[in-house]
Amino acid sequence: MKTRAAVAVEAGKPLEMMEVNLEGPRKGEVLVEIKATGICHTDEFTRSGDDPEGLFPAILGHEGAGVVVEVGEGVTSLEVGDHVIPLYTAECRECEYCLNPKTNLCQKVRATQGKGVMPDGTSRFSMPDGTMIHHYMGCSTFANHTVLPEISLAKVRRDAPFDKICYIGCGVTTGVGAVINTAKVEPGSNCVVFGLGGIGLNVIQGLRLVGADMIVGVDLNEDKKSFAEQFGMTHFVNPKKVEGDLVAHLVELTGGGADYSFECIGNVNVMRQALECAHKGWGESIIIGVAGAGQEISTRPFQLVTGRSWRGSAFGGARGRTDVPKIVDWYMQGKIDIDPMITHKLSLDDINEGFELMHAGKSIRAVVEF
Ligand code: NAD
Ligand code: AHE
Ligand code: ZN
Ligand code: ZN
């Protein structure tokens, strides 16, 4: 079939709208009509050329929601008409990783996913001239239709709006999940969140949900303050307005250091600040931000010797097929907010505007509706 897609033809170039060829689902695969997709900073990270795993041409996008149109041979858990959220972290429920309760990082399709192909080693997408187009993060939601492995789809309730729940495909689950699944933050904790964008705001609402006490937000963009307050931030710090050392300021503000800190930017210098503002003896710092090729983190080992822990979180530690339907329920029950974070709605033709809004710090999430 043919479908409309925004194609990343080359690193650093705007996406190009075109009609692409899409082959139907093979064994264990599912064809999905994408109804809406968010634009995450990770899409920009790859588009810009910073991603060491980035491949071109590719159809980016990994924060979508849609409807099953066709199922391939052997697919048993989904049928035509089911509403689904694509998962960049699959859940096969049988690999060594899925069987270990300490991780959500299913590896069943991860190697081929990283090469921009389906598990059989081939792509379903091609350009009008027949050139192969890579899949992205196993999702490719910047296309009106896409093909995914069955294990990379979470089946969700049919009454949930696509233009909101697409955000659960990455940002919401990443932020809320980092608090609940990765850090396991206890009620009454004092926490610091670096970066109040599409991920950081969801960390903040996760902290409110679990009953954190002090929720300090740190961002260079003053406009993010009022957004973050809506979701539970109790104190705002703009590093540009702090006289002297930011870490010392945060340690003092939190009465000795954060019980938990979260880096939601992808800046290795901020990652160090996030670790070092954690409380001596027990503070944990969670890295969520993704840093560009060649970048490394550093600190004095003494920071760890004296009881701070440095950890990371992917997709909020969530097991997608199991946890994503529950997060959709939380949204429908009003336990978590999504609507005010969707600051812009665009058509696929205007998707590059979404990247410009992100750069200008004007959007939290721009969502493309098909
Ligand atoms: P975003 O662009 O919406 O937000 C980033 C925020 O950081 C902005 O508000 C910006 O003003 C602020 N910021 C930038 N530099 C800063 C600095 N030096 N100090 C303080 N604030 C600063 O991005 P997002 O969509 O929220 O994504 C954030 C990061 O999380 C990205 O690196 C993204 O790739 C990553 N991410 C990781 C996962 C995961 O599973 N680990 C999932 C989604 C996104
Ligand atoms: N390709 C990058 C790594 C990118 C990365 O860390 N991705 C996160 C999800 S970001 C979603 O917005 C993730 O899930 N990582 C675990 C994994 O298996 O990719 C690089 O640096 O190579
Ligand atoms: Zn993302
Ligand atoms: Zn698995």
From TrEMBL:
Species per Swiss-Prot/TrEMBL record: Palleronia pontilimi
EC number, UniProt record:
1.1.1.284
- Where does the source fall among the domains of life? Bacteria
Q: List the catalysed reactions.
A: S-(hydroxymethyl)glutathione + NADP(+) = S-formylglutathione + NADPH + H(+); S-nitrosoglutathione + NADH + H(+) = S-(hydroxysulfenamide)glutathione + NAD(+); S-(hydroxymethyl)glutathione + NAD(+) = S-formylglutathione + NADH + H(+); a primary alcohol + NAD(+) = an aldehyde + NADH + H(+)
What cofactor does this protein call for?
Zn(2+)
* Protein known as: S-(hydroxymethyl)glutathione dehydrogenase
Q: SUPFAM superfamilies from the xrefs?
A: GroES-like (SSF50129), NAD(P)-binding Rossmann-fold domains (SSF51735)
InterPro entries membership: ADH-like_C, ADH-like_N, ADH_3, ADH_Zn_CS, ER, GroES-like_sf, NAD(P)-bd_dom_sf
The question of whether Disulfide bond is a record keyword is answered with no
Q: Which GO terms describe its molecular function?
A: alcohol dehydrogenase (NAD+) activity; S-(hydroxymethyl)glutathione dehydrogenase [NAD(P)+] activity; zinc ion binding
Key words, A-Z: Metal-binding, NAD, Oxidoreductase, Zinc
Q: Please state what class of enzyme this protein is.
A: oxidoreductase
This molecule's function is given as: Has high formaldehyde dehydrogenase activity in the presence of glutathione and catalyzes the oxidation of normal alcohols in a reaction that is not GSH-dependent. In addition, hemithiolacetals other than those formed from GSH, including omega-thiol fatty acids, also are substrates. Also acts as a S-nitroso-glutathione reductase by catalyzing the NADH-dependent reduction of S-nitrosoglutathione.
- One record GO biological process: formaldehyde catabolic process
Per the record, the similarity remark reads: Belongs to the zinc-containing alcohol dehydrogenase family. Class-III subfamily.
One Gene Ontology CC term in the entry: cytosol
Q: Which NCBIfam families match?
A: adh_III_F_hyde
- Gene3D superfamilies on file: Medium-chain alcohol dehydrogenases, catalytic domain (3.90.180.10), NAD(P)-binding Rossmann-like Domain (3.40.50.720)
Where is the Enoyl reductase (ER) domain positioned along the sequence? 12-368
